[in-house]
Amino acid sequence: MHFALGFLLYRLLDTVRAFVAHWYFDGFLFTLHHIIEMITRLDRVFAVHITIRHLFEPLYQDYSFIGRVLGFVFRSMRSVLGIMLYSVLIIVALALFMVWASIPMFLLFGIAFVPHL
Amino acid sequence: MKTKNTPTIDFYDSRFLMSGAGRIFVRVVCNAAYGITFAGACAGIISDILWLRFFGSLLMLILVDSFLHRGEALKNLRHAYHEQALNVRDYIAPLVSRLLEIAFERSRINGGDFVLHLFFILCTRKEIKKGFIRLGIPYDAFLENVKNELQKEEGVRDENEPLILIRKIGVIALQNALKHGDAKVSEKHILRALFEMHHPSLVSLAQTYHINLEDLDNALLFNVLEKRRFFVREKTINPRKVKHRIMNRAWSARRTPFLDSLSEDITDIFRLAKRQVFIGHEKEYEHVFEILSRRERTNALLIGDPGSEMDTIAYRLAANIVHDRVPEKLFDRRVVLIRANSLLKETRGETVTARLAHEGDIAERVTRLIQEVVNSGNIILYFPDIHNLVKGSSGRMQVADLLLPALRDANTPVIAATYPREFKEYIEFNTEFSSLFETVRVQPLTEREAVRYLTYESLKLEAYYGITVTFLAIRSVVSLASRYLVSESLPGNAKKILEEAFSLAQKEERETLTEHEIIRVFEEHVHIPIAKAESTEARKLLEFESLIHKRFINQEEAVRAVSEAVREYRSGLARKTSPIASFLFVGPTGVGKTELSKLLAELQFGSSKFIIRFDMSEFQEASSIERFIGSPEGKIRGALTEAVLKAPYSLILLDEFEKANSNILNLFLQVFDEGRLTDTLGRTVAFQNTIIIATSNVHSEFIKSSLYAGEKMNTLENELKQKLTNVFKPELLNRFSRIVVFKNLSRKHIWHIAELRLQTFAHELFKEQRIKITFDDKVIDYIARKGYDPGFGARPIERVINDELRSLFGKKILSGELKEGKKVHIAFEMNSIVLKVQ
Predict the structure, then answer these.
(1) Which of A96, B586, B710, B740 sits CB 3.0–4.6 Å from B558 for a disulfide?
(2) Spatial contact of B460 and B226, defined as CB atoms under 8 Å apart
(3) Distance separating alpha carbons of residues B657 and B638, to the nearest angstrom
(4) Is A8–B57 a contact, with Cβ atoms under 8 angstroms apart?
(5) Using CA atoms, how far apart are residues B311 and B304, in angstroms rounded to an integer?
(6) Beta strands in B280-374, from DSSP E residues, in sequence order
(7) pTM above the 0.90 mark?
(8) ipTM of the assembly?
(9) Residue A53, SS3?
(10) Cβ neighbourhood burial of B545 (10 Å; 0-12, 13-18, 19+)
(11) Residue B253 touches chain A, beta carbons under 8 Å
């Protein structure tokens, strides 16, 4: 019988261990993966890094003065907009992860410190 | 940094150490615990007590987590690279663990072999069952056999035996999972482990059903892919959903409306496809990639045989561009595919004015297109059939010249593809054009790659036709295509046959496509029997000599030699890399050398039409080798190579072989040895499906006198071989499968030949005119006497029948004396042939 009881105890502890691993470790990887994926997708539109590298190049190979000015103006706007969006996205995602991570702790805190009536 | 270590593997699971009652107790408690916890969590959540609410919520979270990860192992094997010791229990899927437990209990309660119990349970699993069906195994009979094996092994065993076996199986399975980079130990790893244990019953089953572990892995992988079906989604992208992205991300390119109207943007398609599978041509891709990434001379010309899927190289490039896996030079470019017909699309007028107008149109179109491409600055052009573009232009206007600005511009990389013959014929001579490209020879896929390629393709075909294909069918389509469809390369030739076989199976309302359907489709294509001889056919093959002798008199030795060669080939014992057989027929004129060749072609290839005949006396000059295998610049096509490329399953008859130029004779050293020849266009011509017969009448007098002196055939053959070295090189003589000596025909043989020819004549007349004829022996005597010539053997018999009988019958039919349904007796009276109409 001691094998059966040992096994049940092991299963119980393992369920708790798996829950913690899934919630925090997998949850963090999930968030990170999605942030990277969303930024990659957004970067297909805003292409911040590429835009900054070509900041002083004329727009659509229009080598006239106007073309050069327009190129700088539009690219600057695009870069700023892109950086702002990426920042917002990262902040929101991190905030969401913090909320997610705090849920079990909050529940544990509640169990431990809320007065037992 | 990840470091590879070799962890120690063990399998310790206390469940297998418990008593039966203990295991039942654990199972009941585990199952009940979920229900009780769920009820408790719900009660806690709705409770008025705050801390209980928190507790209930936490329990609910844990339950939901357990439910969502219910099929997973406790730990992920892919994350175990740093572990020093692994316990199989932590990495085994719960379901597999349960299967082990069931087998363990069955072997404890019913007795019998644990391995067979486990194997039987695995065989009944849906995935494994499908895998066996994919291997072409008759599943019901197989399962019945497993049951029988299980019954044979029944009986009480050592109690500890299953425990030892579980540990052993678990360890091997985990090693398999690690080797394949899998996340957990699943059913397929356990199945493989069972086979790897070399259990006598499983070894015998594997031998009976030809189960090989690599095939089994592939068949099971097939199921995994089928489940995912990602490739189906990838290839069935709705063209309406493809968004055309005109501008690059740096906003430095220019719009290309005219180019867009005439081309397909491959990068657009790959932007939508989430996963891509590219099989083969890795080396060629690397070479093209290197060419396109250079500063100058950035054009690649792919030269490969039809069917070698050269497009894959351009597609792979487009996919890598979409995922930014390219250097700066190629970054964010568009790979644009232009087909020749989209540029040369208008029909040509008959008049000179119309033609000139058309040429003007094309010139304008190409110039405008190239201008747009060069100005745009972010285009990689791909011409999949550049020869059509070059060949389609004519007269004063050459499209090749119009493309030069793009080819000279290092900022506009171009990939073009063509076939070896077309390259020689239309491109190579235009040095200005061809020198702007670096050529990349594209090799056909290997058989292994082609099997993988067709595995993916067949899943799409399965979804379309609603038919399951066995893995053996895929393997056989690849091996047969590479052997019999040599005019095209792998995988194109195999893909074509596979599609036809699917369509055939659908017509016949079959559920599974097996190698039998594949062989049938091949047989229709190549007109030769490919399937292993069935019992009735095997009987026929064993009586091959008598079949020949029904229509061929004498020359027993020669008939035996050719019969043996055909039997060897049909039983699969012949060498795969050389022709079916190669003979040197030596003997005087008119003794049946050509006749036997015709009969052999009829019996092996279905018709005497499948004879490629050369009079080698026409190839005596040194320069005649060009007529035989083609000229280096490709202007003269090789008579032999072209004929074999067109009809790769045929009998090649080389008359008066000794008269051919020595350079041509040397060519046959390679043909007899390797079964292939490379022509001047670089194409490999395969002779593996041909029978080569060279005839010669040198030393006829020697043969005649030796046989007359009563010498035995075996001794004569050896002596003749010695003598033939005066004419042929010994290494050439040694490469023939057999040197067959034809004897002179006696009067008696001539008489029988005359009788045979008269019977053939009677048969033909009845078939065409419905006139029945009979004849006297005296007629045969007369034909045999008149048709025999010591210099020409039995050759004049046909002429005598024509002169004496055919013309006589012709006159009678024309004059109306002979009509359909009449009977005619041919007699020989008063020294002449007489027709008696009855």
Answers:
(1) B740
(2) no
(3) 18
(4) no
(5) 11
(6) 299-304, 334-337
(7) no
(8) 0.85
(9) helix
(10) middle
(11) yes
